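Data availability excerpt. The first of two example chains:
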Amino acid sequence: MQWLSVCSLLVLLSVLSRSQAQNQICTIFTEAKEDGFKSLILVGLAQNLPDSTLGDLVPLIAEALAMGVKCCSDTPPEDCERDVADLFQSAVCSSETLVEKNDLKMCCEKTAAERTHCFVDHKAKIPRDLSLKAELPAADQCEDFKKDHKAFVGRFIFKFSKSNPMLPPHVVLAIAKGYGKVLTTCCGEAEAQTCFDTKKATFQHAVAKRVAELKSLCIVHKKYGDRVVKAKKLVQYSQKMPQASFQEMGGMVDKIVATVAPCCSGDMVTCMKERKTLVDEVCADESVLSRAAGLSACCKEDAVHRGSCVEAMKPDPKPDGLSEHYDVHADIAAVCQTFTKTPDLAMGKLVYEISVRHPESSQQVILRFAKEAEQALLQCCDMEDHAECVKTALAGSDVDKKITDETDYYKKMCAAEAAVSDDSFEKSMMVYYTRIMPQASFDQLHMVSETVHDVLHACCKDEPGHFVLPCAEEKLTDAIDATCDDYDPSSINPHIAHCCNQSYSMRRHCILAIQPDTEFTPPELDASSFHMGPELCTKDSKDLLLSGKKLLYGVVRHKTTITEDHLKTISTKYHTMKEKCCAAEDQAACFTEEAPKLVSESAELVKV
């Protein structure tokens, strides 16, 4: 059984050896160091064996540690060079208890690649939970944390890994590290609970953001393939490392794209081997490191965390002498020559040149311009007067203007969000999205309106002005990706289905262009559609917001073109009723009498 825990590393790591002939376990043990080694093993075991307890895994981790030492000895066992995935699966399948406990009998009846695919599919079906539920108040968590920091973090890794089996291990460990920082900060303060509640909410948001980014990338890869993923990553990393040349960036992006398919499928062996190759080669390139300060700093991190550091790093300063704007027309002859022979290379160069100059842009704005430029080159490059043809074709398309216009749009959204209360803005988003997709359920539209509010609130606060565009559009696009993937768009309405099938960079613009759906036939509007009673007298702001959104959802569905004035009238009547009945001696009787009146008056306004 000792190999069970050693080989759980298949699901792990950004520290796996490139060469199958190497002593993999020793490579891992040496690079991750003892604590990192144990943490990575714990992630792999917990993600693959979610019905096992932490107590089941502790002895296996201890055995793995002992084997790590043996593999790094002068006479390592032969198994140190065997394929890690095969070893892991064989070890699991040799234990009837583990097979039964984790429902792996069907997988263990298979062999070779079929068995690996079965293990991956099994892991993909494990339910996920990002909630980070706190079982103990801050004071008790602090006591446990101070008593044994490593044991506390280990328990967190175990629980979070079980609930999130498809997250890459480096992401799980980065999240665990972040949670440890929250406790380190708050446990030293007098008001530990207040500190914990505040910082945990911020931390939870950061976790949700990172997971949304990963989920979106996988959705984009599944729907649009390597080409769009490569374009996205070329923009992202050219913005982060403008000192790197196009050739250097192209090689780096190719390696990044190679990790996407295995990482999204749950094949963490291949995923982490590819990540290891990528990070090793990038961090070994002294020429790039000497020019890319952010990358250089990340490469000094330990092997477990440097990949996450690279993903999170901020843009480096632009190189001296770089022009402020990129003019595609300046060398159109060479551009067309390259485009005619190798279109993707020409488009990659164009995307790179724009991206290094515009870290303040979103990926989507640059890709929208690139799509227009590609159409112009397709139309013009075979023509004798290709230069004039391209100028004409792109006459109304200026990337700098696109960036400015989109930035201004989000600044206006930020101003609108700041001008009203959080609840009012979220309700306005509920009204907007109910108008264009009244067929969607309340839960769907509640989630969409909440997400839009959260994105704008975070980006307007954290990235004011200059960088609000990449922050907001990236996150909103992630949300659109998830919505189009989680629900059948055709079950909502043909407009949403059409937008979900648009090109990647155009989906958000397509949705913004949808007009209120006037063809939807709603159910009758009557008092039974709403439940308004003494529960509205609660002081819980979330419950009150939910109730207000339900009323708006019900009313707007019945007339998607209802005016803002009529909505204000209904809202005012709702608050008047609430104040009256919450002050009444018999609240229930008051609501029973007043709620139907409100619904009836709302129904009359809907008819206008």
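And the second chain:
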Amino acid sequence: MSGMLGQYVHLFGEKLVRRRPLKPREESESHVAHLNTFDLVVLGVGRILRPGVYILAGKVAKFIAGPATIICFLVAGLSTMLSGLYYAELGAQVARSGSVYFYSYVTMGQLHAFITGWNSILSLVIGTARVAKAWSYIFDRLIGNHISQVLQEAFPLHMPSFLATYADVFALGLVLLMTVLVLGVHESALVTKVSTGLSLLVLSLIILSGFMKGDLHNWQLTEQDYTLATAGSNDTSRLGPLGSGGFAPFGFEGILRGAALCFYIFFGVHIIATKGEEALTPHRSIPLGIVISLFVCFLAYFGVSAAVTLMVPYYQIHPYNPLPQAILHSWGALAGYVVAVGTLCALTSRLHSAVCRMPKLIYEMAEDGLLFRGLTRIHACAHNRVKSIMAAGILAGVMALLFNFTDLVDLMSIGTLLSYTLVAFSVLVLRYQPHQNFKSPLESAPEAGTSNPLKSLCNPISTTPTRKSGQIVCGCAFLLVLLLTILSLLLALWPSQVFSGDPGFTAGAVLLLLLIAGITAIIWRQPQNPSPLPFRVPALPVLPVLSIFVNVYLMMQLSSVIWAEFGIWNAVGFAIYFGYGIRHSLEEKRDPQPPASTSQTLHEHTPSAESS
């Protein structure tokens, strides 16, 4: 019985790490390299630059970080840049255009791919709901809050505090209307360019206004200023908290909390890494495209947050309509209306693009059998993914109907941080795996079966990766994630005890750091795969370990309610995967693939689906 149970567990484990089979493509399916660095930068800015910053900057500045919101965007941008480089190496492993879900399936295995894909769906759906919610807020403010007043009376939600106070039927209608339009109209490159152009125009106007009409005193506010504002306000409930005043009124904790929320605003950088096959010089243009795109978007976000906090004291910023309010405060009513209308136009085109992108990943995963096959239905006349489009639109509409904008941002941020953690983990593990050719038996350096196991941790005999060294790195990487999670939890929940010298907490933190350093040294001693790649992340294993720690620590800054909602989403996903996907995936019908721990530098595989 024990032998049969062991065999069953082994076969079940092999199912979890099955990779998508690799096959050469037909010449007609190959992409012609035509994208230079400038093309990739335009593509990246178009995908990363998000009108959601119109609301996010005000929300973070008023309640979380004050004028130090610009530091929040800097922290989020730097961490996202590192993650972008990990995406670039992961794309170089595959050397084909495709989605990050597809890259994960090819390199890391089925379960890893499902987690990546399922949480990418969450980010895409929430991104759509968030744009609809922003459109609803700004339009409502433009017409004097009449919509929210009517909806609060007609559709109040007597629900827990993490849900909206009323059912936003207007936002639901926007999503469903755009979903119906997408059923007949495909995503247009022109719409994407118009969206990017409008966003840059509106943001440029805000930034110029901030430098022309801003007051540096708004970065040095004191309790006296707050008292005067309270005395001169007819509705003191609209004022936010003062904090300690100054540039960072809510301290270092506020900056970290704000950075955790700002991460989602940079989501989309992976689109550049998925264009390796179409880039003329991928080894140079992809990392440059990632860095320049993030820098351009950071400048835009930095400028907007600086302009808003310079023009309006942070505690007086309207959390759902900060930019038109700032312009109104400085230039008058007409300018405020112009900016509001321009913002709505940019949000409309962005909503169209978001609804178009949602179904692609759902269709791809359903086509692989990891989601329900019925979602792959193609409409006979319109030739579009009708079931995937409707499913994505309904899900996004329900989220826009029931959730607050802030909760949507929190959920998207935690999903984005998990995606960045997964890609850093993937690069850390894959770099130390032996080379494998799917068309022939595993070829790796000979195993040192008689060597001392403890000695092989620090002094491996082979100078190239073996199955054994690859397994050591896998085990150490999993242990590192566990220790980094415990350390992040300790620093997030009891920071004062750790840094004040409390014997128990400080000793625990120091012990964790020593263990993390030791395990990182063990990974560093293992041989790396020497196969040439168009791009390789420098400073392994230190850089991925640092990225994982930063991402996990920022995830710990989010509230327990958001963690509960995120846990429910993933519980539903695992129920679908273990109840349906693991038995209906395409790999179930093929010969078992070798475990993902013996991954390789990949250059031939099946055609990729459209990038998510």
